[in-house]
Amino acid sequence: MTGPRTGAGGNRQVSERTTIFNRIRQACEPAIRRVMHAYWRFQRGMTLGVRGLCIDEANRVFLVKHSYVSGWHLPGGGVEPGETMLDSLIRELAEEGNIEPTAPPMLHGIFFNNRVSRRDHVAVFVLRDFRQTAAPVPTHEIVAHGFFKLDELPNDTTAATRARIIEVMGRAPVSERW
């Protein structure tokens, strides 16, 4: 029985597996989105999601990277039947970042996300008062996370995420499209 691989060879093997996984995910991503939205279409007449723009004392924003979709995103997800948008936001922030609001989140806007579906809308809330109860641990859904300075966002931060950050920081007018 051998132990975990270490050293340059082991790191290369992990990097190669990550690269292969990313290629497979990118190739499958359009089909996965279509299947999920087809399911949601029958499950719900319209899809509604929430995202939280968490800005800490150092003016950094919290972003997450999902296992099933490319790029860095604001934490959030779908509003489930019987949930309010705030209930969903609080649940998603806890699941994805161990973040708890300490003051009511402020609604930034509701955006039409026609890139995904003609039925999809996303509500974005801004949180400046929150606590992180523990350091998040990567899961099967969230593979990476972190607080980033505005001028040091990861290169693959999505266009919609960048647009919401720029709007909230007062550097662009608010759009109605995701």
Structure, described:
The chain is an alpha+beta fold. The protein folds into 2 domains: 1-43; 45-168, Nucleoside Triphosphate Pyrophosphohydrolase (Alpha-Beta Complex). 34% of the residues lie in helices and 26% in strands. It has 3 helices and 9 strands, in the order αββββαβββββα. The chain has helices spanning 7-43, 85-97, 159-168, and strands at 47-54, 61-66, 72-73, 76-78, 99-101, 106-112, 120-127, 130-132, 142-148. The strands form 3 sheets. It has a 4-stranded mixed sheet with strand order 4-1-7-6. The chain has a 3-stranded antiparallel sheet with strand order 3-2-9, covered by helices on one side. It has a two-stranded antiparallel sheet with strand order 5-8. It is globular and about 40 Å long. The chain starts with 6 loop residues before the first helix and ends in a 10-residue tail after the last helix. 21% of the residues are buried. Mean pLDDT is 87; it is low at 1-8.
